[in-house]
Amino acid sequence: MNTNQEVRVPSEPAAPPRKNRWEGIVVTAAPTVAFVAANAVGDLTAGLVTAAVTAIAAFGWRLYRRQPVRQAVLGLLLVAACAVVAAVTGEARGFFLIPALIPFAVIAVCVTTVLIGRPLTGLILNRVAGGPADWRSVPRLRRIYTVSTLTCAAVNVVNGALQVIYYQGNQPLVLGAVHIATGPVFAVIVAVTVACVRRARRG
């Protein structure tokens, strides 16, 4: 038996480059920014056309950067659905009706996954963080994922409430700002969760 045989320790999965994370946030927010800006200086039609062009450009950019096709298609479909609602209602705030409903669906999912012992952030981020497959049986990791999932739920409570208030107040500019702000907030939650899991593993 060779006692000098080198023992290799599996390395932690590399986190996505910070630049790419922020690039994704900017690309995702671009159609909303374009819609709000064009609607403010022009009218609803100008806003919808500008948002459509920007969404198609964002779709092409995601493909060029070789990002997951599903992510690119979902982003394009979401903008298309928002544009259809705005066109049907004839109101700029209609562009934000679907985004205003999404937080309530996310709250339900977050709370449900915590109640059944499978916190949502654990299901999504455990592999990225390099956690073990049986993370649900590790109290420290399960606690981290539970806290981060409940934090996501709390953020969505605030997000949903703000969007309902400003939707009823017919303030598309503020709705756009609230919608755009959620990207960086959730990016921070993801980064903190991954960092905490990796620190727990080292501990």
UniProtKB/TrEMBL annotation:
Keyword Iron attributed: no
Top-level taxon of the source organism: Bacteria
Lineage, highest ranks first: Bacteria, Bacillati, Actinomycetota, Actinomycetes, Pseudonocardiales
Pfam families xref list: DUF3159
Protein name listed in UniProt: DUF3159 domain-containing protein
Annotated TM spans: 44-64, 71-89, 95-117, 144-167, 173-197
Alphabetically ordered keywords of this record: Membrane, Transmembrane, Transmembrane helix
Record InterPro entries: UCP010219
Organism: Amycolatopsis heterodermiae
Keyword flag Iron: no
